[in-house]
Amino acid sequence: MFTDQKQDTGRTDGPHYPDYSQCCKRRVARLLKHRSVSAPAALLLTATLGGVAACWHMAAGQVIYVDDARTQYIQGTPRDSVTRLQADLERGKVHLSFDPKFGYLPAILKALKVSPTSQVVVFSKTSVQKDLISPENPRSIYFNDGTYVGYVPDGKALELCTTDPYLGAVYYTLLQREVPKPKFFRTIDACLECHADKALKHLPRHLMFSTICNSEGAVAEGTQPFDTSDATSLSKRFGGWFVSGSTSGQKHMGNAFATLKGAEVTLDRKVAGDVKNLASLYDTKLMLTPYSDIAALMTMTHQYHVQNQINEVTYRVNSAMAFERLYPRAAPMNGATGHSVSTDKTVKEVCDLLLRVMLFTDEAKIPAPITGTSGFREAFEKAGPFDSKGRSLRQLNLKTRLLKYPFSFLIYSDNFDAIPVPAKRYFYRRLHRVLDGKDHDPAFGRLTADERAAIREILRATKKDFRIFGG
What we know:
This protein is an alpha+beta fold. It has helices spanning about 20-30, 70-75, 80-90, 105-110, 190-195, 295-325, 340-360, 375-380, 415, 420-435, 450-460, 465-470, and strands spanning about 5, 45, 55-60, 60-65, 120, 140-145, 145-150, 155-165, 170-175, 185, 210, 225, 240, 255-260, 265-270, 335, 340. The radius of gyration is 23 Å and the shape is globular. Mean pLDDT is about 80; it is low at about 1-65.
């Protein structure tokens, strides 16, 4: 059922990340040995949509794929919360107790600092353990800012996903059997089939699908799951998910099953409204809590989207700089930035998109107030950090939008801090211009003067890099 691949644990000098330039050289050298390719005719270009060290070889009118993001992803050794936990387990610093009912789930949540109030529940068969998942036996997911833990009743393993600062989404399984020292296995093949396919530019990504499912949890015939984000209206979210909480009468796709009438598939939304808890939908004793909090679902949707974009910034800017080092004469240099105009173009493209996502420029408006019931909001907001006025980017709005101050709290995440310096410098400088009212791009027109001032003041008080790179 699982494709388990152990990490390289032979190194003792800390986390290892592949040298992008050297990887390019090795791949190109192999390619040039091919009979049909001559060195003089070779032209290597940065594949701006392909990921880290992604290069193309153009010869005799043919374009041959040399590398893609998956190569660097597989070669890299992760440095994430699960890797650190595994090291603590092996050194005996941490012990995971095994619960008779839930296995390692409670202990894992405690060790990774994931609150049970974050529980969201999905019944669509869109997991590696899909054969076990159904509306009667759904999968629960628990999360914090960078780690996601999946649990299926009677499942053979826990499924974990973490956000590595350099590799992005990294997937693991932990077998649900009691042993002295539990071992996490990094899963690659099984997960990348969906999370890094051609449609996603081979870049490992989080997916927040909305799915039209039948009463068994299978994708309804003639329909396709679709990814969702902050820009998706509430009416199109949460298909294939159970949802608890109040929506003030607004409809969504959660708690609903598809029916087939002739050739037409329809979604029964009669119960897709306010459900305080999920006791009427399945046996909630199967999970740690009886909730699938709508506030948690909306927060997780935002996180997935932003984390994917941060990951793309890291991959594509590193790729551009790797090519720049290999072929310094391939493009003119910009004396102001110290990088090629090609690299500068990539930095601008990916960082402008990241800024839009983090400032919620395309966020779909919430027509009426939304209220969760699990205690997620209280636990989430409590984490801060706060400025001297008690304000935080983690404060939720849930009346007309997700956040009270419309700028993503993921600016505090490890993977944001790990984006390459040229990208970080560009991002912060443009962010300053936007918040100071000097950037007149219509995309940021929704921000009021008070909102810009509040975000600026909160960041000045809580984010050191905002002060360092803002000049």
